[in-house]
Amino acid sequence: MTADAGILINSARIQAQNYLKTYNEEIPVELLVRRLCDIKQGYTQHGGLRPFGVSFIYAGYDERYDYQLYTSNPSGNYSGWKATSIGANNAAAQTLLKQDYKNDITLNQASELALKVLSKTMDTTTLSSEKIEFATIQKDKNGKIYQRLWKPAEIEALLNETGITKKEDDEE
């Protein structure tokens, strides 16, 4: 439900800005996730209120815990992960991640794994930059964290480099 997601995203932005204004530092990832999940959970408590119909994957970085990945469901429960998925074909994606994810994975290997999971779980015969979006969180040379949204040409290059341009199930 896009409208529900929009409300929660705006709330996350406000929470992060208020924390920055109050403490003069970025909000810790888990604290932001917890605050959003508190809002989601509150809507399950009162009669006449409809729960938010959205699950999220949160990715972030803070000085204390380094890179972090969380999921939350509409009830407000959240959990931390090393690799995860939500949505359609979630079980198949989780199985692939459990088999192929390694703790010392590089960004390039993680990108290839993400494409592999998408190729086997999406309801499409071919993957292309028109059907997927790709974003990564990285540190620059000065230690500053930034989010990189991949351009369609970069996604196509990665698809060509990995040879994942159609579902691997169809090839086997």
Ordered list of secondary-structure elements with their pairings:
Layout lengths: L1 H22 L5 H14 L13 E7 L3 E7 L5 E3 L9 H11 L6 H15 L13 E5 L5 E5 L2 H11 L5 H4 L1
Antiparallel strand pairs: 1-2, 2-3, 4-5
Helix pairs in contact: 1-2, 3-4
Q: How many β-strands, per DSSP?
A: 5
Largest sheet: 3 strands, antiparallel
As laid out across the biggest beta sheet, the strand order is: 1-2-3
**Average pLDDT, to the nearest integer?**
91
Q: What is the H/E string?
A: HHEEEHHEEHH
Structural class: alpha+beta
Can you walk through the features of this model?
Strand 1 and strand 2 (66-72) form a beta hairpin. The termini are far apart. Helices cover 45% and strands 16% of the residues. It is globular, with a radius of gyration of 18 Å. It is α+β, with helices and mostly antiparallel strands and 172 residues long. Helix 3 packs antiparallel against helix 4 (107-121). It contains six helices and five strands; from the N terminus they run ααβββααββαα. It folds into two domains: 1-81, Aminohydrolase, N-terminal nucleophile (Ntn) domain (Glutamine Phosphoribosylpyrophosphate, subunit 1, domain 1); 87-165, no CATH class. It has helices at residues 2-23, 29-42, 90-100, 107-121, 152-162, 168-171; strands at 56-62, 66-72, 78-80, 135-139, 145-149. The strands form two sheets. The chain has a three-stranded antiparallel β-sheet with strand order 1-2-3. The protein has a two-stranded antiparallel sheet with strand order 4-5. The model is unreliable at 167-172 (pLDDT under 50).
